[in-house]
Amino acid sequence: MESRRDRLRAATVKEISETARRILVKEGPEAVTLRAIAREMGMTAPALYRYFGSHGELLRHLVGELFNDVTGDLHAAMKDVPPGDMSGKFMTAARQFRSWALAHPREYALLFGAPVRGAGHQEDVDFAEECARQFGWTFMALFLELWKKSPFPVPADDEIDPGLREQLRRYRDGVLGVDLPLGVIQQFLKCWTRLQGNVSLEVFGHLEFALDDAAPMFELMLTEVSADLGLTYVPPKS
């Protein structure tokens, strides 16, 4: 049974994370310091060090919390999609990822911009990495389900560039731990780089030189990815 002391500690860590996120949204990542958080919470900086020993530790914990937030958002959005509707699941997950990113640009930048530096305590590193893995698995699980129900065309292993083939094998065997053809892993990464790359360009303002509304370009990307996976493109609800 969790002790009262543990509950109080968990509540304080939660408040620290929420305060850090407010500062991140308002002022940017450079402003998220232990001193600034302590000041806003009415604590002393030394007292805060009992919970996070460094700036890197704090940011890694916040990264984990943000990954949990976007993962929860994706699952909540897909909850109303009929279980067998793979096209609907893919469209919903992709669009919800973009929506979350556009609604939370500074949080997105912390997750998908420059990597957070500083090792921190192993438990915070593990927490952030596990939350990131759960986020990534949301999309990988869709690929697994689709491949099981309706396999899409993929190249044979010996048709993949040798340099890429070995990297895909290491990723599949050492990270994912799944029994899938390397062509499926390649297709997964191709789709992810297109999705995440498209969203990043929009969030960071790198499409504004040509587009003042990037939504149609995003939908065009979804039509092409859908064709690659044998899915039926479903336009967004107006």
TrEMBL record:
Coiled coil (UniProt feature): none
Recorded superkingdom: Bacteria
SUPFAM superfamilies linked: Homeodomain-like, Tetracyclin repressor-like, C-terminal domain
PANTHER family: HTH-TYPE TRANSCRIPTIONAL REGULATOR RUTR, HTH-TYPE TRANSCRIPTIONAL REGULATOR RV1816
Transmembrane segments annotated in the record for this chain: none
Domain HTH tetR-type: 10-70
Keywords: DNA-binding, Transcription, Transcription regulation
DNA-binding region: 33-52
Source organism of the structure: Actinomadura darangshiensis
Matches recorded under InterPro entries: Homeodomain-like_sf (IPR009057), HTH-type_TetR-like_transc_reg (IPR050109), HTH_TetR (IPR001647), MT1864/Rv1816-like_C (IPR025996), Tet_transcr_reg_TetR-rel_C_sf (IPR036271)
Gene Ontology molecular functions: DNA-binding transcription factor activity; transcription cis-regulatory region binding
PROSITE patterns, per database record: HTH_TETR_2 (PS50977)
Short name of any one Pfam family annotated for the protein: TetR_N
Protein name: TetR/AcrR family transcriptional regulator
